Structures are given as C-alpha cells and as structure tokens.
Amino acid sequence: MAATASSVSAWSNWAGNQRGTATSVLRPTSSAEIAAAVRAAVAAGERIRPVGSGHSFTPVARTDGHRMELTGLTDEVRVDLDRRLVTVPAGTTLRALNRLLAGYGLALPNLGDIDAQTVAGAISTGTHGTGAQHGCLSTFVTALTMVTGAGEVLHCSADEHPDVFAAARVSLGALGVLVDVTLSCVDAFVLHAHERPAPLAAVLAEVPELVERHDHVEFYWFPYTDRVQVKSNDRVPVNDRPLPHWHRWLNDEFLSNTVLAGACRLGRAIPALAPGISSVAARVLTERRYTGPSDAVFCSPRRVRFVEMEYALPRAALAPALADLRRIVDRLPVKVLFPVEVRFSAADDVWLSHGYGRDSAYLAVHQYVGMPYEPYFRAVEELAEGLGGRPHWGKLHWRDAASLAPAYPRWDSFQAVRDRLDPHRVFASEHLSRVLG
Known about the structure:
- With 437 residues, the chain is α+β, with helices and mostly antiparallel strands.
- It is 32% helix and 26% strand.
- The chain is globular and about 60 Å long.
C-alpha cells in the first residue's frame, strides 16, 4: 500500500524562519509504504524529505519535492527491561518517549532542554544535552531501521552494517528514512538541580572542575554584563525537594516565558534598552535548588520564539572564545536580547557528530524573532570556525561542504555510504547540496 498523500503542503519550522511548499505530503504508516514511496520517487525523478517537529533552525527539512511525515508510523514499541533497551517508531516525540520510559521505570541518560523533537529528527541533527560523560543523543542509539534511497529496508547496528550505523546516527536525513530506533536506557533517576548567579570570570576559572564535579552543568552569560547563571544537575537517591507547583509556574512559565517575551518585545521596539534589559535579567534569576524526575529537570517549556546558532568547540577554546564573543557583542551594529548558552559533551565515534573524537564545549547564541541576527551570528561563526568549531546541524550557520569536510575526519567515509545508499539523491535538497555537496 502506498503512503497516504495530502495536498496540504505549506510548512514552516517552530521559529518561523524557514518556510516551504512541497508538491505533496506523504504520511506512511509502515516501512513498506515508505519503501514504495521512495521507489516511486526514484522512478519519477522526484525527491523526498523526511521531516520531524520543525525544531531545526536550518532549512534541513525544507523541500520543493515530497515532504514525508513520520508521525503515522505504527510499528510496535518494544521494551527489553533486562537489557534496558527500547525500540520506538522514528516519529515518536521525545516527550512521548519520556512518558513511555517512565512507565517502565526507565529514562534516557541525558536530554537537551526541549522535548518536542521527534526521535528521528533529534538524532539526525546531533541534538545533545550537557554533561562531561555524555555524547549527543545519537550515542544512545544501539540499532535502527531505515529505508534507503533504493527503497531497501535496512537494519543496522554496531554488528550489522556497522559503517551505515556509524553514518546514520547523525545523517541529516541524507541516507534514508528512519523507521524505528532502538535506544539504550538507564533506570529512572532523580536529579538535584542547583541554579545560581555568578561572575563570568569566576565560572570560567573553574570550568574544568565544574564539568568533572557535576553530572551535568551549563551556564548562561547575559550580554553587556559580567554575570552568568549556572545550572548543575546531579543524581540523588530520592525526590525530596520537589518544586511547589506555584514556584515552577513562577520560574518556568511566568519569568522564563511571559516576562521574557515582554522584555524581548520591548527590546525589539527600542533596541537601545537591550543592555539594561540584560542587566535586569541577570539579577532577576536568583539561586534555587530543587529535585525532580530527570526529564522534568532537563526539559523546560520554550514559548518565546527565537533563532539560534550553536558551535561545538574544543573544550580548551571556550575561554578565549567567550572573551572574543564579549568584544563582538559590544561592537555589533545590532543589540542582543538573549543570553549566550554554554554546555559540555564527551567525545563520541559518530562520524558526523559535532563531538566526534573530542570533548566539546558548546557555545550557543540566540536572537529574538524579528530582531536582526545575521551580523551577530556571522561574526560568531567566523570566530568559532577559526577555533576549529563545528556548527550544530540543526542550527543556523553559513558553512558549506568545502569548509566542513576538513572538520570531520570521517567525512569521506560518510560520503561513500551516502553514494551507496542514495545514488539517485532522492533525499537531496538545496540545503543538503550546500552542506554535504
């Protein structure tokens, strides 16, 4: 049976900075339907782009061919409690996955701060959290099933088609359509979160100690100030300090969304107020400690729309990068309304992972929707590229295949797998042609 097609073809991402119109929208319910759709597209000389939840800021999901949505996949969820493995349809959202795992007393070892992405979209773009002992979410993948550009259903793991496995865990959807993903989990756990304001210089001086002392640590620098907000998350045996509902609402909804949205609108209307707004924000967020289930601590609601660029840097480059970034912000012809986020990850072996072969510090810059961002992001990109940085595949950047190839030691290996799995480039797009060649 062929995948169900729809004529509703207009699409935009979460931030609203990417829009496109596909020739049709395909909503398959099985791997057989995906394979049939791929073979039909190859025969007609057409293209297909699989899409997730639209949480990438790049045009990675945009297409002028067929758009394929995976939310209708009905493959059975499989849970192996003894081995702590779960297999889910690729269109499952992280939020739904977290709920599923909690029901079995399991959890993912790490998460980012947004849970709206699909599993396929999250791993395909290298989505990550923070933690010196953790790579990106793709490192939790132990097996996957995909439909290749020849319409072949391929199961791969470290033991079965290992080269495809090394390439497909971060692939930008360039190798095939993910059907299901098997993830390695851990027993459900509780985190103790500690959020505190601190001087930037003091935090930079203790970065090596911070990332080793805490299971997960990140911080936010407020532009035009010397202040940061540090958040550390550590495993504890019991959930003995949960946030009262009103307190969670005050911080995560009112301050982090309602008040932030109002401040951003004011800063967009009167850019000269941005330094003052940043200074006030640095002082509004005070110290707090609380406990909660891991996914509830990792993930927060994000209702204020923004655009973002993020670079993975060699960890030793973080301090000089932030010093130069402060000078960039002060010289910009535009004002910055969002804090700069810094996270950490461990080296991994996924060929196109931002963390391939090295421990990383992630530097993320944001700008409120409707505010000029290109001068800011381009200046930061020039800085990051000079320090050996790799851009996050799901976040804005201007790199092309020629400049990216030297940054990834297994670039040619990935290209060889791509040539084999998608020789007709049925999964290609204008964006993929730019970043992958």
